[in-house]
Design goal:
Length: about 130
């Protein structure tokens, strides 16, 4: 079985059978597809508690991998007062102000420099994938 998703530009994303097998989706008859910002999540349409927990664990792992990408791109915060990104967040001119407080806390607790992140948000520099 192949899973194929087409977009408006008539480009299709095809998930090979080996990937479906590895993910545990090869036996699913129906899928739930969730459009998230810059990502798509495909789940079995029905799952038991063990399957939901496994999916949760997998998505948590993916979130951790993306956090590592941010940490490597931004570097360690050197602001000893814990005020990294605070000035930018208050003047209304920087994209860092759009981060939810919970997201800011997670990034700060992991040592991600919010000032560097703000700069990356302003420049639009690619930090994931590509050549």
């Amino acid at each position: 079985m192949n899973l194929t998703v087409e977009n408006r530009k008539h480009r299709a994303i095809r998930v090979p059978p080996v990937v479906l097998e590895r993910s545990g989706l090869s036996d699913a008859e129906l899928f739930s597809v969730f459009a998230l910002e810059n990502s798509v999540v495909v789940l079995k349409d029905t799952m038991n508690a063990k399957e939901v927990l496994a999916a949760f664990k997998s998505m948590t792992g993916m979130a951790q991998e993306l956090l590592v990408v941010l940490a490597l791109a931004c570097g360690q915060c050197e602001e000893s007062s814990g005020a990294c990104g605070e000035d930018d967040a208050q003047d209304g001119l920087h994209p860092i102000q759009n981060l939810a407080p919970e997201t800011r806390e997670i990034l700060l607790s992991c040592g991600v420099c919010l000032d560097a992140l703000d700069e990356l948000l302003l420049t639009g520099e690619t930090i994931y994938g590509g050549p």
